[in-house]
Specification:
21 helices; mainly alpha; 3 domains; CBS-domain; 6 strands; Tetracycline Repressor, domain 2; MgtE N-terminal fold; single chain
Length: 479
């Protein structure tokens, strides 16, 4: 079986291994040759280099653009540029779209203006819009000038909208028809047209002013009498989006209604383009990746092989915040040094209170961030949500606080210490639940990403409050 027809993860790893093997073989043989004295040394070195380049190019020519993008992301910068310079020029544009944002920057920096213009001209208008933010201004201007009036207007329209809107996801490849023609005419039109745009599951019905009137699914087109008019069988209940609608809302609609494509209209209901399910999938994956990075305290996506200084700048901010919050926690402990000195057992029990509180808060925050992303939280249900989470925290605090209180009593034979431990556990779980709700909700109200920095802030508060509550109760009741 041809491995190129089975693009699984294992197959991609095989392709990557083969490319790395060719690169390492080239480097090894050229290193050995450099240390050997022989007649016509430069000529032999040049011939050997061309031989290796030809073998590597032959391998790359067999791969899809997405496969090459995967390989480029997995290679250190020097090897990445070596491979990039051997890729067929007609694949440059698609590969630039398929690689991650950080890797794309390294590839673009290695290309001159003419190469970038050529790569962009290989793409459809909607794909150029995806690439545009990373192109130098003079290159983008030259690309705009190379487009016809219609495509230039389309591209400028997309670029005028914000990144996370429906306009940024739509494409312009679609089939439109009128409602006053027969299905037979539609079928003949499609046969003359030839290839249909990818993921075409429906035709868009418009009037003379290009206003959307409905959609005609291919299934209805094929199973109905060709003599019928489009207006008789088209669907007038259409799930459509406006240019400024949030991309996240469109993604939820695609999931809710099992859509493959959906029309996009402007404020006057004139058809502008469509959204395809593959664009939605890409958007969801990108959002998921960004959420994972922000929860880990990274400011942006990072090239695995980027320079040390660039990586440090990407990681320093939240590390600095974490350091400050850790210092605050130690100051809280410092307030009770006398208590800890007199009751040494407190030192071993403190991390339990803080740790359980952090885990509880993280569970609540994760639930709230997900619910906000799905649009499930509104002003009408926040109070019920708060009451529910506080109830769960109180019940968990009672159960697990009692258990850990009994354990503390069993170890240290001190009933008062056990009561302090149980009470501190319950109170800190309530604090964790409140903060797990408050942090993402407040950030959402301020129109900030609710996931960014939530774990760092939550851990700081639950640790500090856990120490304060536990040691404060111990000071009051045990001394």
């Amino acid at each position: 079986m041809d491995p190129n027809n089975t693009p699984t993860e294992d197959t991609l790893k095989v392709h990557l291994g083969q490319v790395v093997e060719l690169l390492e073989k080239q480097k090894l043989e050229e290193t050995i040759l450099q240390h050997q004295a022989m007649p016509h040394h430069d000529l032999v070195e040049t011939l050997l280099h061309k031989q290796h380049q030809a073998a590597l190019k032959q391998k790359l020519d067999q791969l899809r653009a997405a496969d090459i993008a995967y390989i480029l992301e997995a290679l250190p910068l020097e090897q990445r540029l070596t491979v990039w310079n051997l890729v067929k020029s007609e694949m440059d544009g698609q590969i630039l779209l398929d690689v991650s944002d950080s890797v794309r920057q390294t590839l673009i920096s290695d290309m001159d203006a003419e190469e970038l213009v050529t790569a962009a001209e290989q793409l459809d208008t909607d794909e150029i819009a995806d690439l545009a933010p990373d192109l130098p201004e003079e290159v983008l201007q030259e690309v705009l000038e190379s487009l016809n009036d219609q495509n230039r207007a389309r591209l400028e329209s997309v670029l005028a909208h914000e990144e996370d809107t429906v306009a940024s996801l739509m494409d312009f490849a679609m089939v439109t028809i009128r409602d006053d023609i027969s299905l037979g005419v539609v079928l003949r039109y499609l046969r003359r047209r030839g290839d249909l745009p990818e993921h075409t599951d429906k035709l868009f019905v418009v009037d003379e002013q290009n206003s959307l009137k409905g959609v005609l699914s291919l299934k209805r087109l094929l199973i109905n009498n060709p003599e019928k008019r489009v207006a008789e069988i088209m669907s007038r209940e259409v799930v459509s989006f406006r240019l400024n609608d949030a991309a996240a809302d469109a993604a939820r609609a695609f999931e809710r209604y099992d859509l493959l494509t959906a029309p996009v209209v402007d404020d006057d209901d004139k058809l502008q383009g469509r959204i395809r399910v593959d664009a939605i999938v890409d958007y969801i994956r990108q959002e998921s990746d960004e959420e994972m990075l922000t929860q880990a305290g990274l400011l942006e996506e990072e090239d695995l092989f980027s320079g040390v200084w660039k990586s440090l700048k990407n990681r320093w901010f939240w590390l600095g915040i974490n350091l400050i919050t850790a210092f605050v926690s130690t100051r809280v402990i410092g307030l009770f040094e006398g208590t800890i000195e007199r009751i040494v057992a407190l030192a071993s029990l403190m991390p339990i209170v803080a740790g359980i509180g952090g885990n509880t808060g993280t569970q609540t925050t994760t639930l709230i961030v997900r619910s906000l992303a799905l649009g499930l939280i509104s002003g009408g249900n926040v109070r019920k949500l708060v009451a529910k989470e506080l109830g769960i925290a109180a019940l968990n605090g009672t159960v697990w606080g009692s258990l850990i209180g009994l354990v503390a009593y069993g170890i240290y034979r001190d009933p008062q210490l056990g009561m302090v431990m149980a009470t501190a556990m319950m109170l800190n779980l309530l604090v964790a639940a409140v903060m797990g709700l408050a942090i993402p909700l407040v950030r959402h109200r301020l129109r900030l990403d609710p996931a960014v920095g939530a774990s760092v802030l939550l851990t700081a508060i639950t640790d500090s409050m856990g120490f304060f509550i536990f040691l404060g109760l111990a000071t009051v009741f045990l001394l």
